[in-house]
Amino acid sequence: MRITATVNGQSRQADDVWPGESLLYVLRERMGLPGSKNACEQGECGSCTVYLDGVPVCSCLVAAGQAQGATVVTVEGLAAGDALHPVQEAFVAAGAVQCGFCTPGLLVAAHDLLARCPRPSDLEIREALAGNLCRCTGYEKILAAVHQAAAQLTGTPPGSAGAAEASS
Amino acid sequence: MTGPARVPGGALQQLRGPGAGGVGASPRRPDGTLKVTGQFAYASDMWLDDMIWGVTLRSPHPYARIISVDVGDALATPGVLAVLTHADVPGQNRCGLELVDQPVLAEDMVRYQGEPVALVAADHPEIARRAARKIAVGYDVLEPVTDAVAALEPGACRLHPQGNLVRHLKVRKGDPVPAAEVVVTGTYTVGMQDQAFLGPEAGLAVPDGQGGVDLYVATQWLHVDQRQICAALGLEPDQVRLTLAGVGGAFGGREDLSMHVHACLLALRTGRPVKMVYNREESFFGHVHRHPATMHYEHGATRDGRLVYVTAEIYLDGGAYTSSTPAVVGNAGTMGIGPYVVPSVRIDTYGVYTNNPPCGAMRGFGSVQTAFAYEAQMDRLAAELGLDPVDLRCRNAMSLGSEAPTGQIVDSAAPVAELLRRLQDMPLPAGLADGAATDLRELPGGVANTTHGEGVRRGVGYAVAYKNVGFSEGFDDYSTARVRLEAAGGEPMAVVHTAAAEVGQGLVTVEQQICRTELGVDHVVIRPKDTGVGSGGSTSASRQTYVTGGAVQAACVRIREQLLGRAQRQAGRTIAGLRLEDGHVVSDAEGKVASIAEVLGADALEETVEWRHRPTSPVDPETGQGFAHVQYAFAAHRAVVDVDTELGLVKVVALDCVQDVGKAMNPDAVLGQIHGGSAQGMGLAIMEEIQVRDGLIRNPSFTDYLIPTIADMPPMRVEVLEYPDPNAPYGLRGVGEAPTISSGPAVAAAIRAATGLELCRIPVRPEHIAETG
């Protein structure tokens, strides 16, 4: 079958898609967008997280046909132009990237969190990112990166709102 | 050596930038931007226009005789290009890290569930998977050997011609028949842990049209792979070229071969590039795991708390094939009493063949298992003596000059007592009694809303890790670095070429830092890791910064000497006290003498160095005595837990760590290793176990094999100490494994403290705490 979708702002088409293929497979193998990762293909690790019509989903659990006519944003589409998005910038700067296999999914999930909750507390970050497994970092630097990105996006210094979250 | 036939999408990325930062700084990773934009090419991202897909058919039985294999229906499936069995392996149908004993494809026997039997290549992965299911394999199913202790008993079914014993290591020191005023004993068991790296096994094999092949693969040691692949394919090293594809974590699970030979066989048979990517379920069958252990310990001490003797019997279940079991036995046995001074030691460590999944390398490598036992014993002894557990440890702590059970003198810093005292001095988190945590997310059970604090008890536990760095027992452990210094556009630039695998830990950053420090240049390019340069040795045993770092430093020093000589020749005089700094040749007296670019002109200086750490020696087979290890790493943890004693749920509230790293080459990366290692150790203590029944894995998925999430991990306080090791480059000490060793035992100790239960089995499950199972 043929799948047409708007992916990272561009109209994209994939032909000869077998109905059993996932959105993840179509992105990675048919559209040349391997940024979304295939860590479990069971919806448990979050590494394949993309926006589907504005909602973060595990693209491994979305049948390709469900993406017909949809708007998809992947890690490759987070930055506008050459400059990194503040969430991407913060992950590199804070040392939240080691092997990096979980990173694309975490970036989309963190991007979504900060859109809903501009200055999240530690507990809010932990709850929001609990569906994204990372095996390298122990998550400490990921927390730091999300706080750093939140500070950058809201134009407030780090720690001014999010760090004292015992109340949250 | 010929170059690759064709370069798949994104494979050969040179890593540049991002600029300043020498040894001791924390510059950004050169691959960081690629990784946050989705541009970094992992092994599973490799792509060529005409590539096809390979899949593996695996044994469903842990032990069976193969009666027949019929590939007819599979081969007749439209879209299928090849179906291969052991008969299609042109070279030696065996591979293995130490002993070459594992079939590339099973012949007449399968010895574990998941053993590869046949391969299929097709133009779509689903076609290949469906065709593989059409291969008819007739099995005569046999009774599996699944108990590592029983496997050594006389009359046990022999799984290999030499029997079921992989290695028995004896360590004997001091009084053979010691006696002590106070004696505590215990039997401890550790379950099978999975590395659970997120990037599954994957690679792309590209035939070169002349009988050779290029393999792009995620691995930990390109050259040991190459050796095994060449033997299986019957090809020479110049016909089998490997390039490191992006690695999504490793933790020991990529030391053994997975799809390497399989993809090459299919590529050479079909003449097409072949990509193989395991899914998560296959990954659980496609790599070795951490050895499960059964350990009997007896500690004797004086009434005032001095250790007199330790005796131990340690059984490590190696599963069906050898892998790195001999070396794991070596670590477990030689370091099996922990970082303590004990006059009399008697340890027998056995590595055993069974029909369970093969076990081999995982972060901590034999030391993780014993640490659970020896630290539980120290707590038990402290309770028996009425001493504080930290005081007892400090009273017996190893220090500089101590003698290990192997007779080896610890000849660099061993600040065991200081690690513990510093942990004790760290603030404790506020407790439930202080009215602090009322948010569900901070309670055991979390938002499952299983308690609001009732039935919850707090416990605190301590543990210390002790681990060798580098390969031991006489192994010729070296790395090769080629460094080139040239001027480009009037600016000096260093190019580093090593085959040492970057698996996420940040070796590429450290390679750049060393060049910046030694050569005074900002711009350092990391060439793709491949077999076009000599071996870098394994990315394991916490060794790469030490050994490949040492090789890069040595190559830089040679280049620097040449450059400084050249600068003096160009100046026509001898200039004292020259060094390289900020792109210039600088002297103490004169300041900038010349720019590096001017001194180089159009020339490039290149040096290739094969660098070794000081040699170790094999241990005596009867006594375990010998200079076994090149360096030791020490870390300690304090865990604070809240336990819902009614439901058996555990919330780790704090997990603090102090570690001596000799020299923090990259302080941010050091913290990253400590955080991540601690998480894996905590996972083993409370949640991670491959559950094996009758040789069958019951939970090969991330639904049923749980690793810590960000909601499970507590905040960590970390202190990093820097006591230089005079034998090591920059005084550094390997970092990666020690935190994985002590965090789990500290968590287990804290749960025991909270519950008063003995809890001799790891991972601790809810039913062990609630005493319902």
What does this structure look like?
The complex is a heterodimer of chains A (168) and B (773). Chain A is an alpha+beta fold and 168 residues long. Chain A is built from five helices and five strands. A five-stranded mixed beta sheet of chain A has the order 2-1-5-3-4, with helices on both faces. The termini of chain A are far apart. The C terminus of chain A is likely disordered. Chain B is an alpha+beta fold. In chain B, strand 9 and strand 10 form a beta hairpin. At the A-B interface, helix 2, helix 3, helix 4 and helix 5 of A face helix 1 and helix 14 of B.
Question: Can you give keywords for this protein?
Answer:
heterodimer; A: 168 residues; alpha+beta; 5-stranded mixed sheet; 5 helices; disordered C terminus; B: 773 residues; 7-stranded mixed sheet; 6-stranded mixed sheet; 16 helices; 24% helix; globular
List the helices and strands and how they pair.
The complex is a heterodimer of chains A (168) and B (773).
Chain A: E1 3-7, E2 10-14, H1 23-30, E3 49-52, E4 55-58, E5 71-73, H2 86-94, H3 103-116, H4 122-128, H5 140-154
Parallel strand pairs in A: 1-5
Antiparallel strand pairs in A: 1-2, 3-4, 3-5
Helix pairs in contact in A: 2-5
Chain B: H1 32-36, E1 52-58, E2 64-70, H2 72-75, E3 80-84, E4 109-110, E5 116-122, H3 125-133, E6 136-141, E7 165-173, E8 182-190, E9 202-207, E10 213-217, H4 222-233, E11 240-244, H5 260-270, E12 274-277, H6 280-286, E13 293-301, E14 307-319, H7 325-334, E15 344-353, H8 367-385, H9 389-395, H10 416-425, E16 456-469, E17 478-488, E18 491-497, H11 507-519, E19 523-526, H12 544-571, E20 578-581, E21 584-587, E22 591-595, H13 596-600, E23 605-612, E24 631-644, E25 649-660, H14 667-686, E26 692-693, E27 696-697, E28 718-721, H15 738-755, E29 761-762, H16 766-770
Parallel strand pairs in B: 1-12, 8-29, 10-11, 14-15, 18-19, 25-28
Antiparallel strand pairs in B: 1-5, 2-4, 2-6, 3-5, 7-15, 8-13, 9-10, 9-12, 13-14, 16-24, 17-18, 17-23, 20-21, 21-22, 24-25, 26-27
Helix pairs in contact in B: 4-5, 8-15, 9-10, 11-12, 14-15
